[in-house]
TrEMBL record:
Taxonomic source organism: Halopseudomonas formosensis
Protein name: Spy/CpxP family protein refolding chaperone
Pfam entry (one): LTXXQ
Domain of life: Bacteria
Signal peptide: 1-22
Biased composition (Basic and acidic residues): 51-71, 80-117
UniProt KW Transmembrane keyword: no
Region (Disordered): 42-117
UniProt-listed InterPro entries: LTXXQ
Keywords: Signal
Keyword Signal found: yes
Amino acid sequence: MKPILIAGLFTLTTALATSTLAATEAPGKHHQRHMERMASELQLTEQQQEQLRDIHQQQREQMRTLREQRQEQVNAVLTEEQRSKLQELREQRREEMRKHMQERRQGRGAERDADTN
């Protein structure tokens, strides 16, 4: 049971960290930059770009469904106390990531200032 719990906690923490990092940009900004790069480097037509957008949207929806299913399965395994502890861990990790991203943004601002001087 412990290996399953540890693996579940690791997976959830990793997913949370990833989503937190991605959420620091405006929604869709990362995806938009990626699509622009692909369109430019691969010389995609408008039709191809639209088809790729549709594929990406379908994948996002499938991933959301999988995350929800995983969470339901994890919750079924954990006790109420463990679920509460997991929620606390998530919130702590989320706050750590917010602080980290804020520090990164401040660092980038300082780098830009140094570059312009």
